[in-house]
Design brief:
It is built from 2 helices and 19 strands. By secondary structure, it is mainly beta. The strands form 2 sheets. Strands 5, 6, 8, 9, 11, 12, 14, 17, 18 and 19 form a 10-stranded mixed β-sheet that branches.
């Protein structure tokens, strides 16, 4: 493997088609780092940017292009099983997100490739003082490709505003699976739901189209609603979500996942068949680990059925 890592954080990686490591050889250099497409109204200068382009080389998926700047980067890729799926862990060296931080990620999983994206630790959102923390992801999933995104939990502290949006272009023959857990942060007086607002929104589109086939949105705003009451989290403190977009999702699978979730009596779980087709799951509970285990168990069910892969073992210490 040959890597050229420029001061900007841009790297172009090449590997022999056989999958063998290639001797040091000239690698095409770029005049400048790529400029990631920003959502409308976003500034030029961002707190962190990250881009990965994953393709198949031999029996493995590898990043053929990689770019990072600011407070976002990835550690060395891992292969957690023998499937050839590459796993990247996103890190934020700053340790937390604060007022006015804007983060942008771009993920391109080419046809036939498989990537799992996770995080090194929880996403911690601190007091934002009227300037929200924003994170946006643009992703493309090619035909026969798989993109899984299973980060650690989001923890929102007092007076935090966090807006996380994703636009995911999924080929009709591609697969996209994403899970999230939201946890209320600690407050000095021991109270919960002291954050101002959390927004999680994913727009799923098809290649060549701009109108989403599916919009999955979660909004938690304690100042405008009784988050803990009926119609909110119904006396629970934590919420988990999982979205699976795949041509093989059907009513039988949704019913099967719903029956499986009954093994977790301490959780309140809802599973729906959504356009795409897609499976949309919401889970309410009071413990991050229990909710995460349910999400990973459901993900494992899908991985075994569709990709002959076992439950994810992140090997995190």
């Amino acid at each position: 493997m040959t890597v050229t890592d420029r001061p900007t954080g841009y790297a172009q990686i090449s590997m022999h088609p056989s999958g063998q490591v290639q001797p040091q050889s000239p690698v095409p250099r770029v005049a400048q780092a790529p400029r990631l497409v920003r959502p409308q109204g976003w500034p030029d200068e961002l707190m962190g940017e990250l881009s990965l382009r994953v393709d198949v080389r031999g029996a493995r998926s590898v990043a053929v292009e990689q770019f990072h700047s600011g407070a976002l980067r990835v550690v060395r890729p891992l292969y957690l099983d023998t499937s050839g799926q590459v796993c990247y862990t996103v890190i934020n060296p700053g340790g937390g997100y604060v007022a006015g931080d804007d983060y942008l990620m771009e993920m391109d999983v080419l046809p036939g490739a498989s990537m799992l994206l996770t995080s090194q630790a929880a996403t911690k959102i601190y007091r934002t003082a009227g300037q929200p923390v924003r994170q946006h992801t643009n992703a493309r999933v090619g035909a026969g490709a798989l993109f899984e995104s299973i980060p650690d939990q989001i923890i929102a502290y007092r007076d935090a505003v966090y807006i996380q949006t994703s636009t995911v272009e999924v080929d009709p023959e591609g697969s996209y699976i994403a899970g999230e857990v939201v946890t209320p942060g600690w407050a000095p007086d021991g109270s919960l739901f002291e954050y101002e607002k959390i927004v999680l929104r994913t727009d799923v589109i098809r290649p060549g189209q701009s109108v989403p086939v599916l919009v999955d949105a979660l909004v938690l705003e304690p100042s405008a609603m009784d988050v803990s009451g009926l119609g909110g989290l119904d006396s629970h403190t934590h919420v988990g979500t999982l979205l699976a977009v795949d041509r093989r999702v059907d009513a039988d699978l949704v019913r099967e996942i719903g029956e499986f979730a009954e093994r977790f009596p301490e959780l309140l779980v809802g599973v729906s068949l959504a356009p795409g087709p897609a499976l949309a799951l919401r889970v309410l509970g009071n413990n991050t680990e229990v909710i995460t285990n349910l999400l990973l168990d459901v993900d494992a069910h899908l991985r075994r059925r569709w990709f002959n892969q076992d439950r994810i073992d992140f090997r995190k210490q």
